[in-house]
Design a protein that fits this description.
The chain is 49% helix and 9% strand. It is mainly alpha-helical. Helix 5 (101-115) links the parallel strand 2 and strand 3 (123-126). Helix 1 crosses helix 3 (41-52) and helix 3 (41-52) crosses helix 4 (64-77). The N and C termini lie far apart (37 Å).
């Protein structure tokens, strides 16, 4: 028996708009901007699109908190797939003289995972 989460994911996957965007995502160098999404609808939309057109996805949101929220939502929808987080390198926004070594390490690890991936694509969340 399917869970509520699986049924909701399936509704998104069967939606005609998702299928149209999945086709557009298959194009080389495609960029898609979604507006008016609320709650976790963006995560469901991205997950459904990814399942129809698995390739590398870069998901850009407004700020670090929103990026962490999006990463957690996507991780819940992809239990067997790592969702990568790509933070900025600095301790404070627009203060370029102070590097955050943990974030530099996380950025390096994310780039390495993407470049060495043999799968059908990776999902990276950033801001």
């Amino acid at each position: 028996m399917a869970t509520n989460l699986e049924r909701l994911s399936q509704h998104y996957q069967n939606d005609e708009r998702v299928q149209q965007i999945a086709e557009a995502a298959k194009a080389t160098d495609s960029r898609i901007r979604l507006l008016g999404m609320s709650g976790a609808s963006d995560a469901f939309f991205l997950a459904a699109t990814y399942r129809q057109a698995p390739q590398n996805y870069l998901y850009i949101v407004s700020d670090k908190e929103e990026a962490a929220y999006a990463q957690n939502n996507l991780a819940a929808l992809f239990e067997q797939k790592s969702i990568h987080f790509f933070p900025d390198s600095f301790k404070r926004p627009r203060k370029f003289e102070e590097l955050d070594n943990n974030n530099v390490l996380l950025r390096t690890e994310t780039i390495h995972k993407i470049s060495s991936s043999k799968g059908k694509g990776e999902i990276v969340v950033t801001y």
